[in-house]
């Protein structure tokens, strides 16, 4: 198939490269000339394990990029993978999705008006929502935006929802080895096209991939339900971990036992400084705001965010027990919201740095890939080239991101003035010569 994807961010670029690897021809559309140029020359515009190789192999060939929407009528279907940032009240801002949808509609309308050879019986163009949007958004917000150019639903275009379930840091692996595929449609032809799109993936898979066929709004809700459930699981194990800490019990030992219960499962039971990223905080806030707009205030989801917000505070309370923060050098190890990515959206390092600065600390930070992204928001703290440089002469260190390289730190702690290490990710081993505290163990 030839598919077009509007948006070349974390989702759009990864999805595009993976579809190209499955044998499809993919054209991404983005307003950023530098991103377009990077993809065309085979350079991945974001850091994601496995993505560099796919873009290098297919960029400029089966994977193309452009700033123009006029390619859309030539493709079999279009995916919208545009940002949906949070507003101050937690609701999502749909301006980019609406603008993209309207541009797709204009491209289809222009094709209809200029192509006199158009077959009146040709199939309508399928437009698929890939971004995470509140239930009913596609039907109530995006369809009118598409139709504004004069194209008609069913006659000229169909819509569907095909949410992604990819984790940053393992997005390529997650795409190529999915737990499920969700096809939200209102038309048989739309469903058929989605099956055709994913047929190479289903043929490649060792086991049969479950396919959930549902309507558009339910597909939109499934994505929110997925992320809200996982975010709540993280906050629950963090809450239990905080209780464990008060009793001197190792929360990880407890979690290992809990995870053996197949009703619970072992994933997402690593307690620590909390979740960040573009999905869990934004999606949980968004579904809370949407529910409140309908008159329901979800207490469990509110509690999920409350617990997540207190974890950085508890990290610094432990640090303050063992060393003086004011006017002293404090090392922050890890800036990305999780290992394997350079994404700093909603990273737990941000509230940690904010509180350290409020207490007058001299903050020095290190991350293997996310430094430049963080520098945009915190230009006046010190960044180092290595973790060892960050620890040198520090009066304390906090571990915020669980990068594997931090587990190899040893003699580097001997260069600290006061070797106090507060670990928010259980990545450092206790050893003689350092004052070590785990956040929940």
TrEMBL record:
Active site: 279 (nucleophile)
Gene3D superfamilies the UniProt entry points to: Cytochrome c1, transmembrane anchor, C-terminal (1.20.5.100), NAD(P)-binding Rossmann-like Domain (3.40.50.720)
Transmembrane keyword on record: no
Annotated binding of NAD(+), by residue: 30, 84, 132, 168, 282, 345
Region (Disordered): 105-124
Binding positions for substrate per the UniProt entry: 165-168, 223, 268-272, 276, 338
Record keywords, A-Z: NAD, Oxidoreductase
InterPro entries: 6-PGluconate_DH-like_C_sf, NAD(P)-bd_dom_sf, UDP-Glc/GDP-Man, UDP-Glc/GDP-Man_DH_C, UDP-Glc/GDP-Man_DH_C_sf, UDP-Glc/GDP-Man_DH_dimer, UDP-Glc/GDP-Man_DH_N, UDPGDh_AglM
Pathway named in the protein's UniProt entry: Nucleotide-sugar biosynthesis; UDP-alpha-D-glucuronate biosynthesis; UDP-alpha-D-glucuronate from UDP-alpha-D-glucose: step 1/1
Annotated ranges, domain UDP-glucose/GDP-mannose dehydrogenase C-terminal: 331-430
Catalysed reactions listed for this entry: UDP-alpha-D-glucose + 2 NAD(+) + H2O = UDP-alpha-D-glucuronate + 2 NADH + 3 H(+)
Highest taxon of the lineage: Archaea
Enzyme nomenclature, EC number: 1.1.1.22
Alphabetized GO MF terms: NAD binding; UDP-glucose 6-dehydrogenase activity
Protein's GO biological process: polysaccharide biosynthetic process; UDP-glucuronate biosynthetic process
Family from the record: Belongs to the UDP-glucose/GDP-mannose dehydrogenase family.
The name this protein goes by in its record: UDP-glucose 6-dehydrogenase
Lineage per the UniProt record: Archaea, Methanobacteriati, Methanobacteriota, Stenosarchaea group, Halobacteria
């Amino acid at each position: 198939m030839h598919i077009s994807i509007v948006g070349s961010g974390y989702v759009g670029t990864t999805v595009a490269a993976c579809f190209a690897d499955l044998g499809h021809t993919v054209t991404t559309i983005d307003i950023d000339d530098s991103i377009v140029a990077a993809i065309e020359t085979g350079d991945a515009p974001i850091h994601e394990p496995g993505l560099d190789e796919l873009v290098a192999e297919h960029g400029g060939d089966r994977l193309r990029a452009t700033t123009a929407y006029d390619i859309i009528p030539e493709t079999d279907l279009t995916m919208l993978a545009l940002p949906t940032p949070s507003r101050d009240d937690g609701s999502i801002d749909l301006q980019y999705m609406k603008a993209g949808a309207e541009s797709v509609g204009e491209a289809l309308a222009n094709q209809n008006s200029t192509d006199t050879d158009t077959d009146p019986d040709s199939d309508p163009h399928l437009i698929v929502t890939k971004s995470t949007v509140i239930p009913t958004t596609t039907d109530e917000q995006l369809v009118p935006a598409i139709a504004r150019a004069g194209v008609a639903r069913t006659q000229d275009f169909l819509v569907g929802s095909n949410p992604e379930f990819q984790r940053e840091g393992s997005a390529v692996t997650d795409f190529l080895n999915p737990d499920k595929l969700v096809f939200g449609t209102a038309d048989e032809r739309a469903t058929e096209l989605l099956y055709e799109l994913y047929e190479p993936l289903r043929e490649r898979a060792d086991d049969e991939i479950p396919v959930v066929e549902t309507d558009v709004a339910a597909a939109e809700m499934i994505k929110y339900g997925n992320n809200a459930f996982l975010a709540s699981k993280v906050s629950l194990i963090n809450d239990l971990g905080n209780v464990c800490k008060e009793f001197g019990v190792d929360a990880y030992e407890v979690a290992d036992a809990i995870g053996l219960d197949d009703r619970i499962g072992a994933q997402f039971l690593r307690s620590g400084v909390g979740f960040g990223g573009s999905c869990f905080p934004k999606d949980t806030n968004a579904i809370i705001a949407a529910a409140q707009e309908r008159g329901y205030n979800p207490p469990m989801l509110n509690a999920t965010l409350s617990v997540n917000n207190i974890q950085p505070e508890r990290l610094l309370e432990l640090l303050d027990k063992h060393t003086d923060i004011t006017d002293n050098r404090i090392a922050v190890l890890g800036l990305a919201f999780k290992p394997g990515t350079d994404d700093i959206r909603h990273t737990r390092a941000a509230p940690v740095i904010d509180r350290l600065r409020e207490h007058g600390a001299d903050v020095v930070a290190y991350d293997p890939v996310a430094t430049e992204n963080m520098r945009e928001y915190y230009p006046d703290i010190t960044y180092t080239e290595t973790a060892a440089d960050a620890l040198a002469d520090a009066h304390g260190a906090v571990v915020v991101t669980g990068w594997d390289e931090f587990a190899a730190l040893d003699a580097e702690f001997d260069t600290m003035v006061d070797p106090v290490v507060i670990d928010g990710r259980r990545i450092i081993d206790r050893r003689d010569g350092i004052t070590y505290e785990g956040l929940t163990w």
